[in-house]
Amino acid sequence: MKKDLDRKIWTYTVCIIAVGLVALYSASYENVRVPHSIFYDQLIFSLFGLGIMYFIGKLDYRKFYDAAYIFYIINIILLVLVLVSGRHALGARRWLEIGGLSFQPSEFAKLAVILMLGRYFSDRHPTLSFDFMTKAQAFFLNLFMPFTMTAILMFFIFKQPDLGTAFLLFGMFLVMLFASGIEYRYFFGFLAFCLALVPFGWHVLEPYQKDRLLVFLNPNIDPLGAGYTIIQSKIAIGSGQIFGKGWLSGTQNQLNFLPERHTDFIFSVLGEEWGLLGTVLLVYLYFRLIQNILKIAEQVKDRFGTLVVVGIVAILTLQVIINIGMVIGLFPVVGLTLPFVSYGRSSFLVFIIMMGFLLNLSKRRTIF
Amino acid sequence: MRLKIIRLVIIALFIVLVLELFYVQVIRGQHYYNLSLNNRIRIVPLEGWRGRIKDRHEKVLADSRISYNILVSPQDIVNIQELFQFLSQVLGVDQPTLIDAYRRKKFTPFAPVAVAENVDRQKAIKIEENKFRFPSLMIQESFKRFYPLERSGAHVIGYVGKLSQERMKSFKEYGYSPPSMVGYSGVEEYYDDVLKGGSGGIQIEVNNRGQQVRLLSIKEPTKGEDITLTIDGEIQRIAQELIEGRVGTIVVMDMANGEVLGLVSSPAFDPNYFVDHKFSEELKAILRHPLSPLLNRAIKGQYPPGSVFKVIMALGGLDSKKITQYTTFNCPGYFQYGGKTFGDTCRYGEQNLIEAIAHSCNVYFYHVGLLIGADLIHKNARLLTLGDLTGIDLPYEEKGFIPHRRVYLAARKSWYAGNTINMSIGQGDILTTPLQLVKMMATVANEGKEVQPHVIKRIGESTVSRYDFIREVKLDSKIFDIVKKGLRAAVTDQNGTARDLNMNEIFVAGKTGTAQSAPNKDHHAWFVGYAQGESKNIAFCVFLEYGGSSHNATALAKQLLKLMHEESLL
Questions:
Q1: One-letter-per-residue 3-state SS of chain A
Q2: Cβ separation of B32 and A179 shorter than 8 Å?
Q3: Closest-CA residue to B39 (of B244, B282, B250, B206)
């Protein structure tokens, strides 16, 4: 049984990576703007990543518990550094360069939030402690504190500006809060409060973010500017129809109509060249992976482990749904990658670490 | 429990996602497929090679040369500083100018921006060689018009320019169709459809930048036709040199067939300024010039003809039999009518028609005017097609204006004898264009045979004959002989107004005019005449706007004829 879950995680991860490499090969095929070298870059990094996944699977996952807060604080420092001296790309500061290595701390913030919330919620046992606390204390310790700690990271990421990741962290917080066992009235009360704040949030947005949201509502208001990407991406996916145009034959892709097609919009390359068959296959692989992760969560008897697994499920699901949704025009363009498939080392590494963590848990879950 | 809820939510989300994929890829699939075809297939119009314009001796007046435009595709720029440093080094233009042009014209990241136009071949090759370093660079071939005559040919030839709306439209299609050149003014405009030829196009598969990936089909544009003008480039040059620095016009026409040999208007402009962007400052100066150099004064300028109009008066008097060649009037130097005094410049005493024309006696023609009346003056002016378009094959010609007594009365304006008297010496409201007077003079010299002024000689290889017709003016043909005697006397008589033009080698006759213009301004100076040389008989006009006395015009006319004679053009 346990070996079986382990193998499934490995299988689905490797399958998804393989599908991603096939798409990336095509996205970078015979093209100047997206050099073909990124395919090999991703290929080598994938092999390296699978090694890391194996290595983390061997580590005692309680070390993550110990390191959770330290990792969280290091992450805050990195995010501040990004704002101070980060590298500009595409109108935002998201990259940090240390010793020749450049990476995106906002990607690692996902990991930091999962570990931090996992430890915080597992240290507290809301249902048990209620009798000994006033409601105000319970509210403060069970909702206000964890939210503030998440919000600090969200704030720095929002400042970069990276609305997508900030929103993602918030979604993850909600799911983990829900899983922590907080009373429904607190949970839904908090949700209602946040929804009420949405109209005020509009003023906080950068002009380009407002544009994107408006363009999302009607891409044709700016067909050559902000709406261009979404229109071209929809055309690409839709024109693939059921069987696709064939590998390396997508006109939208090969003729360069798709911007960012190796990163955020890689799914439209797949949709154009492999059609509905390709897209549903990939979605199915994600679905099976997530279902198996949830099985781990159910079997782990350790509270920290369960919460972390729920966090991983949350981030994986949200990122898959939002990325594919934005590519087919269901969500605004927020710049979230497709896990394991989009080109980009930081994002890839973070999800690989998460998978390694799962392997670790699935191995040790019977200990408790 | 809570994990179950999470699991259910995730299942629901994935079902929605798959349904949405099904909707986009299957139900709407065909629609998006068609859109993807539209995306990649594009028709690029091809500009044909514009025909050349040549003078009567096959000398080229307007040439089409191949030139190169340098485009930058904004989204492909890797290092903007390096790129512009390289461009400024190769093109020899300073960096801020290039960057400024780039910023001004940048429209979307996908549309290439022309940072330099009309770059010569050497530089284009150098840029082409470095394209691998700067993938954002593109080179576009286009035709550049070149006018070797520069200022001398401006008003006859015209110039070419881009159609601005056309350009905007092409930008909308991610900007890759060559903006088509259209003729403005002159022959370039009048014969634009002949010169530009048939447009062609290619159907290409393009990438997102509109760059060609594959050629699907091609339709070659047809080459525009060369046209040959009746204009003589040498005469243009001589005339332009003579009138340079003054305001006015010189028109020289072959009186036998109406072929315009020379036509200059001053101030002139260099049509090359419109072609090359490096002349934008000069072009601005032209457009702001108070004397409007773009105006072709020979056909669009309307001026009172002054004493030149006395030719019409003499013809009218003779045709109506109210006077003969021998009718005399006394000129005391002034003329009184209805309590008003009308002046004259000299006091000649008794004189006949020939002498009156030669001396340009106002009083004589006041008498003639009152004898024949305003209606007949109008009729005769119209018979010689004053107040009418000459029909020359150049755009924007003006009609001039011959006042009509009955039209005035119908408009509840009064018409006094004073109006008639003023009209008799070409003043009042009369307006004519210099070309109209040349045409009139040719009709007189041809004794009633009216020719059609035109500038076209051949289109391609076929001779244009539609202007080769002669119209008989409905006037007694004998009276022209008498008027011609007067016109010759103006040159030969020792008191003749055009006595400067008395030359042994060339037979010249004609009429001077000093037309009053606006108050406080100098008079307009006219000389309209005809000359018989060894090879050609010409009718011509020298007109100086606010040029003062007609002696200024006759002096210029003499130089013109002399130079033409020396160059054996006459």
A1: CHHHHHHHHHHHHHHHHHHHHHHHHHHCCCCCCCCCHHHHHHHHHHHHHHHHHHHHHHCCCHHHHHHHHHHHHHHHHHHHHHHHHCEEECCEEEEEEECCEEECHHHHHHHHHHHHHHHHHHHCCHHHHHHHCCHHHHHHHHHHHHHHHHHHHHHHHHHCCCHHHHHHHHHHHHHHHHHCCCCHHHHHHHHHHHHHHHHHHHHHCCHHHHHHHHHHHCHHHCCCCHHHHHHHHHHHHHHCCCCCCCCCCCHHHHCCCCCCCCCCCHHHHHHHHHHHHHHHHHHHHHHHHHHHHHHHHHHCCCHHHHHHHHHHHHHHHHHHHHHHHHHCCCCCCCCCCCCCCCCCHHHHHHHHHHHHHHHHHHHHHHHC
A2: no
A3: B206
Whole-model pTM over 0.90: no
Closest chain B residue to the Cα of A282, Cα to Cα: B18
Four-CA torsion B278, B284, B285, B286, nearest 10 degrees: 100
Q: Which of B307, B360, B424, B550 is catalytic?
A: B307
Which is nearest to B337 in space by CA: B375, B376, B379, B371?
B371
- What pLDDT sits at residue B22? 93
Cα B11 to Cα B261: distance, rounded to the nearest angstrom: 89
Using the Cβ of B96 and the Cβ atoms of chain A, whether some distance falls under 8 Å is answered with no
Separation of alpha carbons A195 and A213, rounded Å: 17
- Note whether A209 contacts B: Cβ–Cβ < 8 A: no
Please give the pLDDT value at position A102: 77
Concerning whether B307 is annotated as a catalytic residue, the answer is yes
At B63-73, the pLDDT tens digits run: 888 878 787 87
- When CB atoms are compared, the residue of B14, B32, B205 closest to A287 is B14
The per-residue pLDDT for B304 is 92
Interchain CB contact of A225 with B (< 8 Å): yes
For chain A, say whether B285 makes contact (Cβ under 8 Å): no
CA A55 to chain B, closest CA, distance in angstroms equals: 28
Which parts of chain B have pLDDT scores under 50?
166-168, 170-178
- pLDDT mean values, one per 10 residues, chain A (368 residues): 78 94 87 78 93 89 87 92 74 70 86 92 66 73 88 88 87 92 86 86 74 64 64 86 84 74 88 92 95 88 88 94 90 86 90 90 61
Does the beta carbon of B20 lie under 8 angstroms from any beta carbon of chain A? Answer: yes
Interface predicted TM-score (ipTM) of this complex, two decimals = 0.91
CB B474 within 8 Å of CB B383: yes
Two tokens, residue A350: 């973070």
> Which structure tokens are listed for B467?
């202007």
| Residue in A closest to B205 by C-alpha | A255
